[in-house]
Predict the 3D structure of the following.
Amino acid sequence: MTEGRWRRGSPPDHLPGAEPPVPSGLDDLLTAVARGNERAYDAVYDLTSGWVLGVARKVLRDPAQAEEVMQEVMLEVWRLAGRFDPARGSGTSWVMTLAHRRAVDRVRSERSRAIRELRAATAVIDYDDVIEAVETSLDAQRVQRCLASLTRLQHECVSLAYYGGYTYREVAEMLGVPAGTVKTRMRDGLIRLRDCLGDVRGEQ
Amino acid sequence: MTSGDQDLHTLAGAYVLDAVSDDERGRFAAHLAACAQCRDEVDGLREAAARLGTAQAVRPRLELREPTIRAAYRTGQMGPVVAENELSDRSGRRAGPGLARATRWGLMAAAAVAVAAAIGIGTHYADMRGRAGHGPAAPAVAAVLSAPDAVMRTASVGGGGMAIVVSSRREHMAVFIAHGLRRPPPARRYELWLMGPRGERPAGMLTVHPRGMAGPALIGGMSAGDMVSLTIEPASGSLRPTSAPVVMIGPAGR
C-alpha cells in the first residue's frame, strides 16, 4: 500500500492564509470536513460530541466506556465524512447512526451472558428512565412528548432497542411477546415518532 | 412483492434501531439496495431515531476535546469515491464489498489510531501497519483484512488495553490486534481462544510487545457464532481456558 492512495490530514485547502470560510449548518460543516477542513471539524465536534456521548452513556451505562465510544465515533465522523450524503438525510441522522451502531456493537460484544440477564431483570427501570428528562432542552421535551404518544408496547419496543441495545428477538423474550409483533411495533412506533416529530431536517 | 419481501420489509424499524442480527442486517441492506421506497422509509425513520439519541445529550469533559480533535487530524480520510460505490450503505459502519484493499488497510490503521486515541498514548499508525505487513502470516492477514465481508469489532480488555478483531466469515479467519495490554504475570502468557457453538478451541499464544501491543495474530478455523477471547494461561499454553477471559469479541447473542 502506498501512502498516496490514502488521504491524510492537512489537505491543500488548509494552507496558512487560505482557510476557507466555515459554514454554520451541520450538513454543510460535514461536507467541508469531507474535504479535510479542520476548522469545520472543530465545529462539528462541538455540535455533536454531546449527542454522541449521551447516546453512548445511555446504551453502555458506563461513563468511561461511553467516553471511549464518543472518541471513536468522532474519529469516524472525520474519517467517513466523505460518505455523508445530504440527499439521504440530515447530518444529525448520519452522526447518530454511527454513534448508536458503535455503542450497540460495544455493548453486545462486552456483555457477558450473566450481565445480560441482570440487565434484563432491571429492564423495566430502563424503560421508565426514558420518561425522565435527562436534559430539559426543548428538543428533549418534544421527544418525550412524542414518545408518550406511542402505545405502551411501541414505547417499550423502541426504548429497549434504542436505549438498551437489545435485538428485537431479545426484546420479544423480555416482554413475552412474539418476535413478529415486536418487529412490527418497532416499525410502527418509529413511524408514529417520526410523524409526531415532524420534518426534522427543516429545523436544523 | 412476495410474502418474503413483505416479511423483510417489516424489519425496517428494527434495522433502524440496530436491533437485528448481522445476518438480518445484511439481508435487509440487500433488500434496501433494490427498493427505493424502502430506502426513503429507512431514511425517515433514522431521523426519528436520531432524535431519541440527541435528546440524551450530555456535555463531554473538556479534557477530551483537544486529544480527540488532534487524533482526527492525524487520521486519513476516506474519499467520497467510496461513497459512490456504496450508496446502499451510507452509514459507513463497516467495510462493504465496494471498498478497495487500500481502504481496508486504512480501516485497520484507523482502528489502531482510534484505539491509541481512546487510551491517550498517541498514535502508532505506521507501527501497526508495518507489523501487519510482515511475517509468515502476512498474506493470510491481508486476505482477512481485504475480504469483502470483513467486519471490525473493538472492545476494552479487562485490566487495561483495547483489542480489535477483524473477521471474515467467508475466509473462516480473524485477525486479532491489541494495544495497551498489561504484561502477564511471571511464567504466564496470553492465549487466544475461539469460543462458540463448537466449544472452546485454543487459537494461539500471544506475545506482548512494547507499549502493550500484540498481534496481528491470525486465527483460523472460525465458524459461525464464534467469539474470539483472550485469557492468561501458564506459559506453555493450555488446551482449555483456566481463567476467565479478559476480553471476548464477536457476534453477540448468537
Remarks:
- The CA atoms of residues 14 and 20 of chain B lie 6 Å apart.
- The two ends of chain B are 30 Å apart (CA to CA).
